[in-house]
What we know:
By secondary structure, this protein is α+β, with helices and mostly antiparallel strands. A hairpin with a 2-residue loop joins strand 5 and strand 6. A five-stranded mixed β-sheet has the order 1-3-8-5-6. It has a five-stranded antiparallel β-sheet with strand order 2-9-4-7-10. The chain has two domains: 6-173, Regulatory protein AraC (Jelly Rolls), CATH 2.60.120; 179-282, Arc Repressor Mutant, subunit A, CATH 1.10.10.60. It is 49% helix and 15% strand. It has helices at residues 9-12, 24-30, 98-102, 107-116, 133-144, 149-169, 179-195, 202-209, 213-224, 228-246, 251-257, 263-274, 278-282, and strands spanning 6-7, 19-23, 41-43, 46-51, 56-60, 63-67, 71-75, 80-83, 91-96, 122-123. The two termini are 13 Å apart.
Amino acid sequence: MGGKHQIDNKNIVHLHVPFEVITIEELLERHKATRKLQTWHVINFNALFIVTSNAGKHDIDCEEYHFKAGDIIPLVKNQIHRFHKEFPITGTAITFTEDFILKNISEANSLLFLKIFHLPKIQIEKDAISLLNPFIDLLFKEQAIINTGVNADIIRSILVTVFLYIERLAPLDFVKSDTKRFKDFIKFKTLVSENFKKTHHAKDYAKLLNVSYKHINDISKEFSGKTAKAFIDFWLVTEIKRNISQQSYNMKEISYRVGFEEPTNFIRFFKKHTGQTPKEYSL
């Protein structure tokens, strides 16, 4: 099968710090010869797309989404995505690693970062999106300066300011919630991402978190709208779709990669949740 498509920081980010701001049009032009960005690829960093086009499409984790001016798209490491060939979004792309943004910032701002990148999409009024422009312009200017440690700190501070403005401009997306419960959900989500190959059982994750099954179930329903078991199953289905879309492994290999010892159980699980066998989905 075909090779795995990945876009690494070293390919996209050209500064000494793991960060870049670029217009989406320029980004697509950079990869025009290979058209890699129009095929499914894994991202090894975080990205924030600020959409300015009136209408456009973007594919994320094997689903097609419609976006418009004022939409902000948070993407996290290990997601797969691709730009639409006929109706690509336009705007600004900001890319950086999680380690870079979380270095030397307050706990409150770290929590804000986690909240932003927990959301699939953030909506801001079309007219209000222009309030972010001065900070985006500053990011472009800092990027052009010869890189120093101070430069990295300034970029980080500007990014945090962008996050704060996003929170202000999209208040409905940031419903105040219990900080401890949200942190527990993020821990649960992280454990699933790290251990889904080992276990698919919610009770195992409750033990890893040292909390009750009821607590893990309650916080999962609160922050994902799914029971803990349904959230784990959703994660598994997404991982299977990612693996199939990249065309890097055969079905038997994929079943082992997502923690199924028997391929028949893998096929039964996927069909139960999608109505298709993995092979049918791949066609």
